[in-house]
Amino acid sequence: MKDERKTTTGRRDFLRKVGIGTVGAGATLAAPLIAPAQADSETDDEKRKARYKETDHVKTYYRVNRYPG
Question: Looking at the whole model, is its pTM more than 0.85?
């Protein structure tokens, strides 16, 4: 008879190899995400301006949901 040996990977070896592959893939994916911080382009006046506007759809939302107005 032929002496055939099957190469099997044990559970622990498999988990080690998967873990190493995951760490390597994570490092290459995270590299582009690390970038220097950029300052915001708004001036102090623009930061303090009013942004909320009570438009018709906002008034309808308040009316339908019975907010006091």
Answer: no
- 50: phi then psi, degrees, rounded to nearest 5: -75, 130
For the segment 44-63, what is each residue's pLDDT rounded down to a tens digit?
888 888 888 899 998 998 89
Whole-number Å distance between alpha carbons of 60 and 26: 47
Sign for the CA dihedral angle at 12, 17, 18, 23 comes to positive
Q: How does residue 33 score in pLDDT terms, banded at 50, 70 and 90?
A: low
Q: Where are the domains of the chain?
A: 43-69
